[in-house]
Every structure is written in C-alpha cells, then in structure tokens.
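queue> pop job 88
queue> type: inverse folding (structure -> sequence)
queue> payload:
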C-alpha cells in the first residue's frame, strides 16, 4: 500500500490559503455580528 504523500508544496500552500481565508471570513462574520449587536442595543430603547 503505497499512498501518495499529501504534504507536497502545492498542497501545503493550498491548505495555508484555505486556513487564512477561513480565518478572515470568521473574523468578518464576528465583526458584522458585533456591529449588529451594538446597533440593536443602541436602537432598542427608541423602539418602545
């Protein structure tokens, strides 16, 4: 059973790009949720 190596330079670069893209996407989602929460907290007293 001679499996192909999965730690080739191209695969390693692709994995790094995917990790960076995923981290950036998660950070943007967290920022959007934080902005939404702050806006909701600021506007909630005016909606009564």
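queue> result:
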């Amino acid at each position: 059973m001679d499996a192909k190596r999965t730690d080739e330079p191209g695969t390693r670069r692709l994995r790094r790009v995917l990790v960076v893209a995923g981290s950036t996407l998660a950070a943007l989602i967290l920022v959007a949720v934080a902005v939404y929460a702050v806006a909701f907290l600021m506007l909630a007293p005016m909606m009564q």
